[in-house]
Amino acid sequence: MSGRRPRGAGIRGPHSALTDFLAANNISAQEIRDSYRQRVQQAEADVAQDATTTDNGEGPSNATDVEQVEEDKDDEEPAESSTMAAERSRKRKRNQEEAIAKIKKGKAAKKSKKSKKKKDSDDDSDFEDTLEMYRKAKPLPGQLENCELCEKRFTVTPYSKAGPGGGLLCTSCGKEMAKDAKATEKAKKPVVRKGRRKIESNRLDGSTFRGAKSLQQLCIEKLASHSEDIDEFGEMPAPIMNRLSEIFSKKRAMNSTTFKLFLQPDLDVVAIPEAAYLETEDFSQIFAVVPRIKELSLRNCCQFKDENVDYMMEKAKHLTDIQLLGANLISNDKWIDLFISRGKDLRSLKLEWLDAAFDDQAVEALVEFCPNIVRLKLERCKQIGADSIDAIARLEQLQHLTLRYQNDIPREKLANLILCVGDKLRTLCLEHFMNSEDAPTDDILIAIHDTCTSLGKLRFSENSECTDAGYVNLFTNWPNPPLHYIDLNSTRDVDNTAPEGPEDYPIGLASSGFTALMAHSGSKLQYLDISSCRHISQQTFTKIFNPSQTYPYLREVNLSFCPVVDTEVIAGIFRSCPMVKKVVTFGCFEVKDVDVPRDIVLIGAPKAQDAIEQFGQVFMDFQKDLRQEMGRNVPVLG
Amino acid sequence: MSDSSSTEYVTLVSNDGYEYKILRSAACIAGTIKKALDPHSGFLETTQNRVELPTINGVVLEKVCEYLYYHQKHAESKDVPDMDIQPELCLELLIAADYLDV
User: Fold this and answer.
1) Domain presence at residue A339
2) Given a cut of 60, is residue A112 above it in pLDDT?
3) What are residue B49's phi and psi, to 5 degrees?
4) By CA distance, what is A599's nearest residue in B?
5) Where is the composition biased (Basic residues) (chain A) (predicted)?
């Protein structure tokens, strides 16, 4: 209407009846003409564009084609090479051909039109619709028709299936099609797997228990899975920070970005259990951001280099506790520099898995310059040998000592070490000490018995020399108060030709040694590991774990690979240890069909077909008071 | 729970004034609330059956209440499905959970 008005104010030419009718019905010949011209122009422009494949910017400039130009811009990069342009034109032609093919096919083309390029939309859809109108009607049941897929002639029934193109299918093709449809439907449905392996893994980690996870645990796991999106933790209590760090590490989410979340200037502890993804610069960040750091704990810090040690010496003036695992790029001299620089302030040093550097000289420097070391842990450091043992013997303040050597150590040196530092020790862990030269004796156990008087934790494992009599001697009339943690795993003779060990004197912890152990420490013992102590008899087990005995604090027991342990022994443990939470019995083939009491986890019973681990279901008669105060059950971690 | 003044439901109040009335048994899953409502503690909370939590806002407290019921519901089952937590709520909820000891 508005288009016509300026033509004349009040001046009108002769009117035909048709013109009046059209005007009354709001139909304008002008509009019809315009829209027709538009369409023609657009079609021409399309053709022109296809032929020349010019740049988009030079496309048709009239307003009606704005949509078209925009669409092209979306589809293609503005700055494209001529090859790409050629490719594009080929593509377009192909599309056009496809479109025509589809139109011919008929019905289905209408559906797929949307996904197709909108380019030739208007004209085509009109065309298509007319085509639709003139299509042959589908044959009715009883008539004959060619199958859409295999072109065979067949009789149409009410059950004939429609093909992908809209036509009908013969019976065999229809069946085939139905089968495919079912398969895709199945694939679409998410397969809910129980993840048995994951569940078992969690159980062995000690992180399963009845009921829901704690809210903290849920939040931390959620945070870890969104680690990339967190900007800042804000004020977090230290234990939660620590837990977060552990879970981030476990999920391998501790990288250069997320790691910075754990650096806050007011912290004095930085503990990264898994630092393998961190780079040299990241480690320097620690000391730049947290200059007041007191405790540093980095595991798998492969990229911790000399320059980091330099920077650490310069910045971290309050550092007292250092734990580094796998820091193999630090040179020997740098270790010595570090000990000189930290000197009397260094309280705790834990180094593991060092094989390139850190030799006896470094240990001697440590002892020389850091006399106040209270806690020392050296495990699997390949370069150190007997001389370092002599050096450690001069550390007078030592209270916690953990050693695992790769090299042969003469027994007298080790015994001498214990004699020198033993009386102050509260933790003593000696793992896997090899000695191929001297004849086996119980000297070490005698030394422990004679000097250690304040031990709380003792680990003496993978030893194939000390005899049962030696262990009896250790735990009899020992002035040391009862221990809370004992690990004597794998103390046995290893000889394939004589699996029972030497007959005249049993090697390793056996019946009388175990009896003496429980007599000495049973009253305070919380953790007991005697796996692979093969010579403890069944009678001894039943005598020790019988209901008349009580071990009030025992929480975790590992009896794996003690072949005589049977259902009776396990039941005895449940009754005589009121606090027990976890019993591990890998390789104990006599353990069958145990009724596991509530809130206790039995792991590793090999005859249990359905689950490696069994959750207690029943309240035992001795658990009456437990039932009354059914509070929350906290899982016990080893 | 034989105390005469103790009711079946208790009220948790957020710092922005939202009140949530939830089962006492569920509320006591949270260690801090349990201690506050312990009849032997002699705290004011025990007589009013009302716990004010000035460090927790309404949105977070609602989620906490949801968790408490979720925990109670699943107390006996194994392999419990994890509760859904919006990521943006996680940090605040974590701090609240630490404070409440759940």
Assistant:
1) no
2) no
3) 50, 45
4) B76
5) 102-118
Give the pLDDT confidence score for residue A58 in this predicted structure. 43
**For residue A279, which amino acid is it?**
E
* Mean pLDDT, range A29-58, rounded to an integer: 71
Q: Best of B56, B86, B90 to disrupt the A interface by mutation (most A CBs within 10 Å)?
A: B90
H or E stretch including A368?
A: helix A360-369
For residue B70, what are the domain limits?
Answer: 9-100
Q: Is residue B84 one of the residues assigned to a domain?
A: yes
Assigned domain for B33 exists? yes
Q: How many domains does chain B have?
A: 1
pLDDT at position A40, please? Answer: 85
Task: Answer yes or no: is B88 within a domain.
Answer: yes
* A318 belongs to a structural domain: no
CA distance B28 to B32: 8
Residue B46 in any domain: the answer is yes
Residue pLDDT, tens place only, A297-335: 999 999 999 999 999 999 999 999 999 999 999 999 999
Residue A39, token pair as written in the block: 């369409």
Is B94's Cβ below 8 Å from some Cβ in A?
yes
> CA A89, CA A97: separation in Å to the nearest integer?
12
Contacts of B95 in chain A (CB under 8 A): 235-237, 240
Residue A60 has what pLDDT? 41
pLDDT in tens, B13-36: 999 989 999 999 999 999 999 888
Report yes or no: B87 at the A interface, CB cutoff 8 Å. Answer: yes
Q: In Å, how far is A236's CA from the nearest CA of chain B? A: 7
Q: Shortest CA distance to A409 belongs to which of A339, A463, A448?
A: A463
Q: How many domains does the structure of chain A reveal?
A: 2
Cα B20 to Cα A127, A216, B34, B62: the distances in Å are 65, 21, 16, 8
* Domain co-membership, A36 together with A109: yes
Q: Is the pLDDT of residue A576 over 90?
A: yes
pLDDT bin (cut points 50, 70, 90) of residue A51 is low
Does residue A28 sit in the same domain as residue A92?
A: yes
- C-alpha of A82 from chain center: 48
Task: Note whether B91 contacts A221, CB cutoff 8 Å.
Answer: no
B84 contact A CB<8A: no
- CA A239 to each of CA A229, A270, A591, B81: distance values in angstroms, whole numbers, following the listed order: 22, 12, 39, 26
Low-confidence winner among A49-58, A333-342, A354-363, A523-532 (lowest mean pLDDT) = A49-58
The residue of chain B with its CA nearest to that of A238 is: B98
Confidence label for A68 from pLDDT (cuts 50, 70 and 90):
very low
Residue A143 structural domain: 137-170
